[in-house]
Amino acid sequence: MSGDSELTVVLVYPELLGTYGDRGNALALVRRAQLRGLPVRITKVPLGRRLPAFGDVYLLGGGEDAAELLALRALVADPSARRVLAEAPACLAVCAGLQILAREFAAADGHREHGLGLLDVICARLPGPRAVGEVLVEPLGIPSLPMLTGYENHQGDAQILVGAEPLGRVMHGVGNGVGIGVGRLDGAVQGHIVGTYLHGPVLVRNPALADRLIEWSVGPVAPVHDEAVEQLRAERLAAVGGKRFALRRMTRA
Asked: Quick one: 65 exposed, middle or buried, by C-beta within 10 A (0-12, 13-18, 19+)?
């Protein structure tokens, strides 16, 4: 942690990387920390400011193509940004954020951009229409998480290479766009860096993932129950058949 008893959440370029409510991931972390009486603060890093090294959880959200390129250029120009993100206790990168941390990604005009290379992933473009809609993901890359829900709105794909693991297997939706049906994957996990195409915001819909990021920073935390979030999860799981799938898994265990 950055101090003796305070969790610091760093929101990276929120004016660029905050599409589809991804700034709400910071609020979700604040909520989960406060439920446990853990002091927490949000540090917003505007474009042109260097990333601070004192953060505990770094958040990069989604953004349109032009905003994504501006954010990438700014991070490349920051001489310590790559090291700060690589050494952070936890980092969550959503959609454009995932692509920025990848080895490379395809810009809107098709040319290849080198990312920061913190995720061993190569992102190209999905063939056909954009991936839009609800997503249900069975976790793989982070043990002991429950089913993940979110929604997607992107044209990018993601090929996971040997240094990374998928965040999960897509049971409904497109995700990384690799494979067919339930052979598809979403996101990537490499060390304490998590990339995903899930909006929602993903940490609001999936408090267990938020808790895992906090635990990577402060150590084990006590379980808490947030009724409003659990109701949201139940609604979203039911909307795509996720509750039935989860019950089938429990029956087989």
From this structure: middle
Grouping H, G, I as helix, E, B as strand and the rest as coil, residue 29 is: helix
3-state secondary structure of 134: strand
Spatial CB neighbours of 241, under 8 Å, sequence gap ≥ 6: 136, 172
Q: Which of 46, 155, 136, 48 is nearest to 95 (CA)?
A: 155
Other Cβ atoms closer than 10 A to 239: 13
Query: CA–CA separation, 200 vs 207, rounded Å?
Result: 12
> Who contacts 22 (Cβ-Cβ below 8 Å, separation ≥6)?
59, 61, 62, 94, 95, 97, 199, 201
Higher pLDDT, 5 or 241: 241
Q: How far is Cα 244 from Cα 146, in angstroms, rounded to an integer? A: 13
Distances from the Cα of 217 to the Cαs of 7, 22, 59, 183, 214, in angstroms? 8, 20, 14, 32, 5
- In tens, the pLDDT along 207-245 reads 999 999 999 999 999 999 899 988 988 888 888 876 555
**How far apart, in whole angstroms, are the C-alpha atoms of residue 46 and residue 68?**
14
Least confident of 3-12, 51-60, 77-86: 3-12
Q: What is the DSSP-derived secondary structure letter of residue 160?
A: E
Look-up of token digits 């993940």: 148
**Contact 90/56 with Cβ under 8 angstroms?**
yes
- Two tokens at 167? 């965040």
Sequence-distant (≥ 6) Cβ neighbours of residue 49 within 8 angstroms:
none
